[in-house]
Amino acid sequence: MTQPRPSGSAGAPQVDNPGIAYREADVPDLRVNLSASERRAATLPARRSVKKNHQAAWLLKAVTMIDLTTLAGDDTPGRVQRLCAKARNPVRHDVLSALGMQDERITTGAVCVYPTMVPHAAANLKGSGIPVASVATGFPAGLMPLELRIQEVAWAVEQGAHEIDVVITREHALTGNWAALHEELTQFKAACGSAHMKVILAVGELGTQDVIAKASWVAMMAGADFIKTSTGKESVNATLVNSLTMVRALRHYHDVTGHTVGFKPAGGIKTAKQALAWLALIKDELGDRWLHPNLFRFGASSLLGDIERQLEHHVTGRYAAAHHQPLA
């Protein structure tokens, strides 16, 4: 991969997916060759590698695409405040200066929290341009009455969330009840109003790549602005194989409808090396247009710390201890 150009918000590519009305005939009979997908995914970390200044540039690009996340039972306003401060200044100023990037505005792509933490995140990010994302719809299992899940979406938006990460009813996908999944997500989309809807498929619980592909397609039919791999709470979260399946479904949907949908892998992406592999996947399968925070995000809480560590090594030649990095 070559060194990417810095990209601001002006003229940036945007999500554009109004969705389409459900018809059974419009759900394609998607089939995934698992062994071929596994071989393709295995080539990405090794074949698409970058070094030195190019690697530093790609890692800074990755920082701008992170949904910096805290989804813990012991979250507090103070923790959210510290997370928002980190989102505003994700890389130490001395490291940015050494990279010649001290005058660039480097922030994370968003801050993602539980609904009750949204007001605290919104207050701490005011004026920064960094969106607040909230999980909703009974995250992570989604096993709440539909009416309550819709109310949770609307409440999070009222509190100041710009993006809503919704979870699907896995039963609909596992039983092939695509009409029910489409109807559910259409109601979530309406409750989102002007906020973007990011649909979490929980791919580790969907069984096969064929089901993942069809669930991706139906989510996009229902107006998903992003499709997202996982909640981070499943035993299997984002992998390059299931991401490849989702990205190819996304590309096919764009080719058929002309509508643009973003992609968010989440759960288990913890190292800078892993982040580079996902960026290579997006560049190869979707092109440079999708390499922007408006269309691609990492759902992560610890990834930023390793990226900072690699950037510091790049400018100093030394690896810092984890505690040396401010709140990653």
Task: Outline the secondary-structure elements.
Layout (H helix, E strand, L loop, with lengths): L33 H14 L4 H12 L2 E4 L7 H12 L4 H6 L11 E4 L4 H8 L6 E5 L9 H13 L4 E5 L2 H5 L3 H15 L3 E5 L8 H13 L4 E3 L11 H18 L4 E3 L7 H14 L12 E3 L2 H14 L12
Parallel strand pairs: 1-2, 1-8, 2-3, 3-4, 4-5, 5-6, 6-7
N-to-C SSE string, H for helix and E for strand: HHEHHEHEHEHHEHEHEHEH
CATH architecture field: Alpha-Beta Barrel
| Strand order across the largest sheet | 7-6-5-4-3-2-1-8
Rg of Cα set: 19 Å
Structural class based on helices, strands and sheet pairing: alpha/beta
Total of DSSP H or I helical runs spanning 4+ residues: 12
CATH fold topology: TIM Barrel
Mean pLDDT: 92
- How many distinct beta strands? 8
Helical percentage:
40-55%
Distance between the termini: 26 Å
Biggest pleated-sheet summary? 8 strands, parallel
What count of structural domains? Answer: 1
Residue ranges: pLDDT <50 for 5 or more in a row?
1-8
The CATH C-level class name: Alpha Beta
CATH homologous superfamily title = Aldolase class I
The rough form would be described as globular
Structural account:
With 328 residues, the protein is an alpha/beta fold. It has one domain (35-315): Aldolase class I (TIM Barrel, Alpha-Beta Barrel), CATH 3.20.20. 44% of the residues lie in helices and 10% in strands. It has an eight-stranded parallel sheet with strand order 7-6-5-4-3-2-1-8. Strand 3, helix 6 (146-158) and strand 4 (163-167) form a beta-alpha-beta unit. The two termini are 26 Å apart. Residues 1-8 have low confidence and may be disordered.
